Amino acid sequence: MVDKPLLLECNQKVLGKHYTAVSLQQHIQANDFVRQFRTHRNICLGQDQMPDYYLSIEDDQLQQTLVSMTVDQPSFSAYFCSQLSCNEKLLLSTGDTPQTSSNNIENQGLPSPSQLQHVFDVLSTTLPRLFIQPMNYQIYSPDVVFENRIRGTHTTGLYNYVKQVALLRCVGHLKYAYVRFEILKITQHPEEGTIKVRWRICGISGLKVLFQFWRYKLWQWKEVLQKQESWYDGFSTFHVSSKGLITLHVADKMMPDDDKATETNKGILAAKLALLLGLLPQQNAKNLSDVMENLLINSITTTGKSQA
Fold first, then answer.
1. Strands 176-189 and 153-156
2. In a domain, 37, yes or no
3. What is the largest CA-CA distance in the chain?
4. Residues 166, 148: Cα–Cα separation, whole Å
5. How far apart are CA 229 and CA 184, in angstroms?
6. Which residue of 108, 204, 227, 304 is most buried, as measured by CB atoms within 10 A?
7. In this prediction, what percent of the chain has a pLDDT beyond 90?
8. DSSP string over 2-58
9. Which structural domain, as residue segments, surrounds residue 25?
10. Are 235 and 196 in contact (CB under 8 A)?
């Protein structure tokens, strides 16, 4: 008879190994797509995708992020379109939705215990996979309000919410060879009809991976990640209505519990990760990690061919 704790530990290692491999693969594919599109333009993308899902980049912070990655806007728009799932394309093709007043949100009533539990279960499962799988948007109201206090933005409608999540996923994979959304704590609050999540986004750039690649096996990158300071903590509150749907998502900054002094980051990688969320201005238009990411991609491709 197999010991259950041992079996659980083995399953976690397998899942961790799989996630690391998928994250690295998507990072390589993302940078390869951008290089090819920059050279050949629409050849790399289906003819029916660009007109329908073309991304207009008007956000100044996103533009600065693309400049720091030396990625031009047409290439990023094409990559963004290519990464949308069928459901995301459907949601984005419907366009924006009418504005909903805050009073309507407050007067929608509380969810039942089973409804709150369902949303809790879905968030617990899907949030950690945010960077490698599309979110389950069935638990969100069509006129969901996203109050992003991290960036100081306020949007209404599932269209805008889906677009922001997809943008975060795309930027994460272009910039980081390993990027992950971790749930540090998630709780239900039936008296408020809310679910509160303390989360952390962690990442390792191509530069760091290149330096550590030969020292660690693929599934040991979690150990590398724990030694780095490339992370950003946050706190989200999801308000669930009597219909069992999320009507309001409030995202806040949050300092780590162990050492508040680390909020003023000492490493360049953490600054880049904060930039991914639009928290800090970019100081340098170009950096060495972009070059090293290309070297990483080429080295892995060469290794794969030699083994074949």
1. unpaired
2. yes
3. 63
4. 15
5. 16
6. 204
7. 30
8. --HHHHHHHHHHHHHHHHHHHHHHHHHHHHHHHHHHHHHGGGGS-TTTHHHH-----
9. 13-307
10. yes
Extract the tokens encoding 185: 């704590």
Summarised one tens digit per residue, pLDDT across range 38-61 is: 887 655 554 444 444 556 666 677
The residue type found at 100 is T
In a domain, 241, yes or no: yes
Q: What is the mean pLDDT of the chain?
A: 73
d(CA 7, CA 153): 44
Q: Are 75 and 67 in contact (CB under 8 A)?
A: no
Residue 242, both tokens: 């009597």
Task: Please state, as a whole number, how many other Cβ atoms lie within 10 Å of the Cβ of residue 303.
Answer: 11
CB 181 within 8 A of CB 130: yes
DSSP structure class, residue 201: E
Rg (CA), the chain: 20
Q: Contact 219/17 with Cβ under 8 angstroms?
A: yes
Q: What is the mean pLDDT of residues 276-297?
A: 42
| Any domain includes 67 | yes
Q: Indicate the number of domains in the chain.
A: 1
CB 134 within 8 A of CB 188: no
Starting at the earlier edge strand, list the strands of the sheet with 246-253. 153-156, 140-148, 246-253, 231-240, 194-205, 176-189
Q: Write the CA distances from 288 to 70, 266, 278, 280, 291, integer angstroms.
A: 11, 18, 21, 19, 5
Q: Average the pLDDT over each of 55-69, 154-168, 280-294 and give the range with the smallest value.
A: 280-294
- The enclosing domain of 301 has a CATH number of 3.10.450.50
What tokens appear for 103 in the block?
């009073």
pTM of the model: 0.70
Q: DSSP for 109-174, please give it.
A: -PPPHHHHHHHHHHHHHHGGGTTTS---GGGEEEEEEEEETTTTEEEESHHHHHHHHHHHHHHHHH
Within a domain: 138: yes
